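Give me structure tokens for this 84-residue protein.
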Amino acid sequence: MTLRDEERVGGLLRVLRPAPEGWVRAAQELPAARRSLDEIVARAEADLEFRKALVADLEATLELEGYEPRPRVLDELRRRLPQD
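Here you go.
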């Protein structure tokens, strides 16, 4: 990119409205959510009893373990968890 291109992009960005608050908050929460998902899956892979509990009742097990069972989290865990 040339300096002229960068200035043009900068000018275009300045005229954009700010991102909605919900988008900003979701983007800020995403890294922690990914870490939690990775942690849950790793534990399920290493701990047979935990994995069985998750498969039997995912929402209740997550709540018992202190996780908030949000719909997107539940969907992603169902996709990622090994099914015995």
